[in-house]
Specification:
The protein has 390 residues and is an alpha/beta fold. The protein is built from 15 helices and eleven strands. The strands form three sheets. A seven-stranded parallel beta sheet has the order 3-2-1-4-5-6-10, with helices on both faces. α3 links the parallel β4 and β5. α1 crosses α7. The longest helix is centred in the first third of the chain and has 22 residues. The chain is globular. It starts with 10 loop residues before the first strand and ends in a 5-residue tail after the last helix. The relative contact order is 0.14.
Amino acid sequence: MAFDSTNKGYQALIFGASGITGWALLRECLTYPSPNTFERVIGLTNRPLDEKDAFLPTESGRWELYAGMDLSRGVDVAKEKLRGIEGIEGVTHVYFASYTAHRSDYQELKRANVEILENAVLAVEALCPKLQFWTLQTGGKAYGVEFLPNVPYNPPHVESAPRAPEPYASNIFYYAQYDVMQRLSRSKPWTFCEIRPDAIIGFVPNNNAMNLAQGLGLFLAMYRDVEGEGAEVAYPGNEEGWRAMRTDTSQDILARFHVYASMHPEEVRERAFNVADGEAVSWAQVWPGICSYFGLEGVGPSSAGGKAAGVEWLKSRQPQWGEWVRKNGLKEGALEGTSWEFVSALTESATFDRQYDLSRIREVGFQEKVDTVMGYHLAFDRMRRAKIIP
């Protein structure tokens, strides 16, 4: 079914607008699938994000940012925050990309993230009578990746695969979030779908600890500075990780599918969708291209020659971080604010295939693709403009 992008008074509300998905949604809602899709785009953040530092087009005049939306404080507080936004009753489409309780145990992670979702839904329902659609972003943990080898795991992953068995299912908060959405939307005039990216590749103007592109960009930029242009930079993992297949998800592709899905409610209602750039790739296929952005030669793990690589190399130079940032006139705090544990997990510890099957999004008409290496390069371009890397 073709979507009529002529403005129908649609208004977008984005929870988690300062994050890697939410920021991309702010951008894409202004132009995708056309500049006329939304007459207003409202971004909600917990942490402050000044509009002048948001790296968003100022000429459109259609996007707004509101900080201080702490969904953990309850429904009434969320309602009060929303009431402070003039015209909030006009919201038609909600994109939920909020996440909390990072580093908590499984049960606290589930409690906290189910709570913020339910608080958001109840607050929006109370104040936004025109609500039509809600997207819920989850991810690859829905396939039980954290509990290998104790759960069935058969990539390429398809959305119709059964949930992980107990006791593991009770520790995957995405399942509980989906169940909440199904319960709250029952017999309502609005509906929802679940969106599952693989590792998200992108940029945020504020620091985002769990950001692979930011971590790699900082490492490779400093490596180029220390080792020189043309230096070989070895993939930091082992041969298994070098060959393992995956499907990275560029933030722009991800944001566009959020919008696309929300405009096709009958086709996507209560369904889950894998989202990724296109064909499955390995580090062996993309590492050289990623490194080439910085004038470096990316080589495989067997070429390391015993030299420190990746996060280990970067941490060995931690005493020089401050001077490197000052010398290059960069934004402070990015190196310290990056989760190097997260970067290491995705570049060194992920030694198994985890690629997605993308048949379902193609079947509902979403055909957009992007070259995976180009997705990293776009993130690096944006990081340069924001003075995160030189």
